Amino acid sequence: MTFWDSSALVPLIVEEPASAVVLGILESDPDILIWWGTPVECLSAISRWERESELATGMVERARVVLQDLLGHLHEILASEEVRGHAERLLLRHPLRAADALQLAAAMTWTRSRPRGHRFCTLDHRLARAAREEGFQVLGA
Question: Hey, what domains does the chain have and what are their CATH numbers?
Answer without folding.
Answer: 2-140 (3.40.50.1010)
